[in-house]
Amino acid sequence: MDIAQNVILTIMTAATPLLIAAIGELVVERSGVLNLGVEGMMVIGAVCGFAAAMITGSPWMGVVGGIVAGALLSLLFGFLTLSLATNQVATGLSLTLLGIGVSGLIGESFVGKAGIRLPSLNIPGLTEIPLVGKLLFGQDPIFYLSILLTAGTTWFLFRTRAGLTLRSIGDNHKSAHALGIPVIGYRYLAVMFGGGCAGLAGAHLSLVYTPQWVENMTAGRGWIALALVVFGSWRPWRVLAGAYLFGAVTIGQLHAQALGFGIPSQLLSSLPYLATIVVLVLISRDRRLTIINTPASLGQPFVPDR
Q: Which domain holds residue 279?
């Protein structure tokens, strides 16, 4: 039971940054904007979160630093794509390259230093409950925030007027503009929310998952988060299920390596990314379902009439 509990704990920890980054990107794409720079914003959040925690001595300041860094980098993307109407795909890819390069520069002096771990929750009497105690009451605070974020995003998108407005912009920005809705303003807020979530996901990596700074430590998780949005059909709870599925694949290959199976470690390490490709191929086979769920204006630039 202890082994099972530890495996589940590691799966939940591995899934948390994927879930947070994917939920942020889901809101961005629901507004009709395609931001492929999630990887870059995550790695910036990781290094800035680690740096802020080291400088201030507080892991909570590291969390704030990661969120702010991701949001600021997303503002650059927003300015280029929303104000200057540049190509969203090319700009997102450039944002990832920029984030990776800048994070290496910022984190050069922090390589090899022991970080400050964000403490886990510990409720006396509840955390000690066999099997479920640590799973429900002994997680890090960002884990609980990820669940609240999923529930809050579901409520916002499908139960509020602002969420309906955001979805209408993603489906037809021209009609929304004709009704007097500030399309660019809504999209700026969505992009900043997505950037803040990506930065928080990166901070989780450097403050909880592995409390240290390693260059390019996101290791492609931003791309998996992008795939999770499609996997979940732009629905938050489906994205949560996908995040835990990919978290299980990630942890599964680590345990397989530790047990010494006669499989090359390089192949085992590639399993999460192979799973991403397989899932996207399977989803793409049902073109009708994909078209129904995809925001109709996704990736299309919008220039208000003058």
A: 2-293
